[in-house]
Design goal:
Helix content is about 35%, strand content about 15%. It is globular and about 65 Å long. It binds pyridoxal-5'-phosphate.
Length: about 350
């Protein structure tokens, strides 16, 4: 099999041992004679898988007992509508815009009530998180929404603002499980699975119990958090195979030493690439240092005319899916938990030799 490193922003690289285990268990899960794909979601086998997956997820993030974990569908974009349906309850909500995904959240939520943009970094080209002191928060808002890691722009939150008791709703799709977090600082945390959790089709929602009582009666049952919490996320058929793979990823992560250990690996990987970007004139990352994402690193070549040649050289070196998002251009290296440091070393080596070759020929 061809040796490659996959820098896709999502769906993204999964840990190899997880894929191998899924392969071994594909036709016969634990002697049941069935593939997980063929099991009833209400049978004892899948019930075991779901309960173990939730328990491991709770352990990894140290989720307090007064939070529910929901296994939903509709992705993070679905949550853009599901959140106001479940939380607005006639009030307004504050949104902070730090990149393409939080901007999209505002647009999607507007149909459901009054959405107020409390701060935005759009005018500066999404290169930082606006200082918390500049956020114009409404003390009566139903919630404050922001995206803790902007996958497209490469901006990551480190700290959590003081919202004076207004619940924080955080889109953590692209860095969940990459570093320890204090769940109790949030009202709701959500994320599509297809980056650090598993295959697409699953969206995990962590919601504080006291926030379950305020959904609009128009909320569909599959998106009604309280209803789903009361039915172990099974008011409909959940995405069983995606949940199973997520469970294997959680087991793998626990075996790595959990999120504290993976954070150290993520720091080492991100530093390798940022250190190189900072000492070369050939490439550039425009994000302010304090807000640079460890997971998604956009960079551009000073000479954009070399973009195609760069992608071709990368592909020849087995470094795949490095093309930047169409709205930003340039390149983007997504380096989720499952990306080994060897992948980042190979990327930096390739970038160095490409720069050397093309500097000489200038
Ligand atoms: C931060 C963030 N939010 C939302 C989304 C949208 O997720 P989905 O396509 O699963 O709805 C993405 C997808 O890449 C994302 O990275």
């Amino acid at each position: 099999m061809k040796k490659i490193f996959n820098f896709s922003a999502g769906p993204a690289v999964l840990p190899k041992p997880v894929l191998e285990r899924a392969q071994q268990e594909m036709l016969d899960w634990h002697g049941s004679g069935m593939s997980v794909m063929e099991m009833s979601h209400r049978g004892k086998e899948f019930t075991y898988i779901l309960e173990k997956t939730e328990a491991d997820f709770r352990q990894l993030l140290n989720i307090p007992a007064n939070y529910k974990v929901l296994f939903l569908q509709g992705g993070a974009i679905g949550e853009n509508a599901i959140i106001p349906m479940n939380l607005l309850n006639g009030k307004s909500a504050d949104y902070v815009v730090t990149g393409a995904w939080s901007k999209r959240s505002v647009e999607d939520a507007k149909a459901y009530g009054h959405i107020h943009v409390a701060a935005s970094a759009e005018n500066s080209g999404f290169t930082h998180v606006p200082a918390f002191s500049q956020w114009k928060l409404n003390p009566d808002a139903a919630y404050v929404h922001y995206c803790t890691n902007e996958t497209i722009n490469g901006v990551e939150f480190i700290d959590v603002p003081d919202t004076h008791g207004v619940p924080i709703v955080a889109d953590m799709s692209s860095h969940i499980l990459s570093r320890p977090i204090d769940v109790s600082q949030y009202g709701v945390i959500y994320g599509g699975a297809q980056k650090n959790i598993g295959p697409a089709g699953l969206c995990l929602v962590i919601v504080r119990e006291d926030l379950l009582a305020q959904a609009s009666p128009l909320t569909p049952a599959v998106f009604h958090w309280k209803t789903q919490a009361e039915h172990q996320s099974m008011i409909n058929t959940p995405p069983t195979y995606s949940i199973y793979i997520a469970g294997l990823v959680f087991e793998w992560l626990l075996a790595q030493g959990g999120v504290a250990a993976i954070e150290q690996a993520n720091i080492a990987k991100a530093s390798l690439l940022y250190d190189y970007l900072d000492q070369t004139d050939f490439y550039e990352n425009k994000i302010e240092k304090a807000y640079r994402s460890r997971m998604n690193i956009p960079f551009s070549l000073r000479d954009e005319a070399l973009n195609d040649a760069f992608l071709k050289a990368a592909e020849e070196a087995g470094l795949l899916q490095l093309k930047g998002h169409r709205s930003v251009g340039g390149m983007r290296a997504s380096m989720y938990n499952a990306m080994p440091i060897e992948g980042v070393q190979a990327l930096v080596t390739m970038m160095q030799s490409f720069a050397e070759k093309h500097t000489k020929s200038l």
